[in-house]
Design goal:
Blueprint (H helix, E strand, L loop, with lengths): L1 E5 L3 H13 L3 E5 L2 H8 L6 E4 L2 E2 L2 E2 H10 L6 E5 L4 H9 L4 E4 L4 H16 L6 E3 L2 E4 L4 E4 L2 E2 L4 H11 L6 E2 H9 L10 H16 L4 E6 L3 E6 L2
Parallel strand pairs: 1-2, 1-3, 3-6, 6-7
Antiparallel strand pairs: 4-5, 8-9, 9-10, 10-11, 12-14, 13-14
């Protein structure tokens, strides 16, 4: 899961990033409006933490543009402006939640998980596809109830693809989602090939009824085996 933290306060931004990385999220940051605007329209994020008061713009303007362009993002506004007007405006513009500063990191984590569950899994804690179940809260996977041991990146790849089952996913998009946006400067995708090979082996050995297909010249597609 990849999160973009749009926050101009460097100390708070660092605290949020460290806490999210401990929860195994891939985290990108934007300290101002212009950087945030560039990132949200180039890269994909599972969740955006959006401060309203930015040095070169207003976060609500960015939210409005996302809405106008039909971009569906899980957006949680984090703002020192705890006003009813800002809350209503933000929610009307498509924000999924509003968290006033100061806040406890535990509450932030809970809000992120709630928004992701609500918008991706109809409120269900676990994700099931075929005979494979992913438990995001514990980073566990089982096949027909039997634990499947995966490395961290193998889990992250599987989690990402299961959330986008039956969709063609470009190698570049997968790499950015699992390793971060800076990976777009990589010379090749050998690091993905190695992880994918191991993941496929483990799924097959466990008798999983899902399969990761290679779409040559494009990327990957996860399907339920026929």
């Amino acid at each position: 899961m990849k999160i973009l933290v749009i926050e101009d306060n460097a100390d708070l931004r660092e605290v949020i990033v460290r806490s999210l990385e401990k929860e195994r999220y891939v985290v990108e940051t934007a300290p101002d409006y212009s950087t945030a605007r560039t990132k949200v329209f180039i890269y994909e994020y599972d969740c955006i933490l959006l401060d309203i008061m930015l040095p070169d713009g207003n976060g609500l303007s960015l939210l409005r543009e996302l809405s106008e362009r039909g971009r569906r993002n899980n957006v949680i506004i984090i703002s020192a402006k705890d006003s009813i007007e800002d809350k209503v405006t933000g929610l009307d513009l498509g924000a999924d939640d509003y968290l006033a500063k100061p806040f406890h990191l535990a509450e932030l984590h809970a809000r992120i998980k709630s928004v992701l569950r609500r918008n991706a899994h109809n409120g269900e804690r676990n994700i099931k596809l075929g005979n494979v179940t992913i438990h995001p809260d514990t980073f566990k996977v089982d096949v027909d109830g039997r634990d499947l041991e995966l490395g961290r990146k193998e889990y992250d790849i599987l989690h990402y693809l299961v959330n986008r089952a039956n969709r063609l996913i470009e190698k570049q998009t997968l790499a950015e989602a699992v390793w971060g946006d800076s990976i777009d400067q990589a010379d090749n995708f050998d690091f993905i090939y190695a992880q994918m090979k191991n993941l496929r082996k483990r799924l097959k050995a466990a008798g999983a009824t899902i399969e990761i297909k290679t779409v040559y010249g494009f990327g990957y597609k996860l399907v339920v085996s026929s």
